[in-house]
Prior knowledge:
Elements: E1 3-8, E2 13-20, E3 27-34, H1 42-46, E4 58-61, E5 64-66, E6 69-76, E7 79-80, H2 82-87, H3 92-97, H4 103-107, H5 114-119, E8 124-125, E9 128-129, E10 132-143, E11 148-155, E12 160-165, H6 201-213, E13 220-230, E14 241-249, E15 256-259, E16 266-267, E17 272-280, E18 285-295, H7 296-301
Parallel strand pairs: 1-14
Antiparallel strand pairs: 1-2, 2-11, 3-10, 4-5, 4-11, 6-7, 6-10, 8-9, 12-13, 13-18, 14-17, 15-18, 16-17
Amino acid sequence: MVEEILEISSTRIRVRYKFLNDSKSDVKTIVAFPMPRFGWNPGEAQLDANVGPMSSFETRADGQKVKTSVDTKAFLKEKDISALLRAEGYTEKEMVDVMSCNLGAVSEGQCIAESIVKRIPGIAEDGHPNFSVQQTAWWEQKFPAGKIVEIEHSYQPKVGNVYQIYNYNGKPDDSALLRPWVPGGSSGAEDGRRACTHEGGDDAVISRAKRLQKLNDGEVWMTLNDLEYVLGTGRNWKGPIDSFTLRIEKASPDQVVSLCFPGKPKQVDHRTLEFRATQFVPPDDLVVYFYTVKTAGQIDREPRKK
């Protein structure tokens, strides 16, 4: 791969690749783009927002739109249970749709039929889905001999959303910063998809919360939006990536970003961080945390969306 430019925000992911076929023959092959696995989340399901990103997924090759197919798989821990669910009458669409099951349906036991719960032990927990889903877009692509092909993907990512009140009942809590919600528990530090710290990480979030508390402008709310991106597929091509660029765009200048990535970021502007690497061998996954800290007064004064 000659070049990869990856741009990530909490509302859009865009990635551009340049592939060089340095052989003397044309190559036609299947290209696959996997999304991270996702599961049921109580906050998102309640808002009917816990859906996969494939509905907004677009691919272009040398500027021309490409029609892609989507493969959907379901996993109970690390076991592929897709065939078991299909045998119970589930379509791939229904494997995704069940993740939008709201709290009312969960309490009534309406998310997953009792007959399926009995036949597939562990598939549900306290009424909600206890398995995860992964979707992969794929298509057949021709790479002409000796030429560069530019591939571009763009989509709205699935973003986790959890919050806590820093000074609930007027008592500040510095003991544990909020982490993404994980199936089988609440939001907490047990999540294995841990992000590292840049811009001071946890300390920067707590420091901002303390400063805002002194404004006496109501409770201080800390919100975490987390997202994941599968980087590891970049290792499937010949050798390392010659030139790799990662850009992280914040929703606002005072948002705090936390992620694991080698090197020190460059501050491109008041909302954008940029990492660059050459001869880059990508890790499996990239996890990014976007922390927003505001007072109740600031939230109340924000313009309402129509």
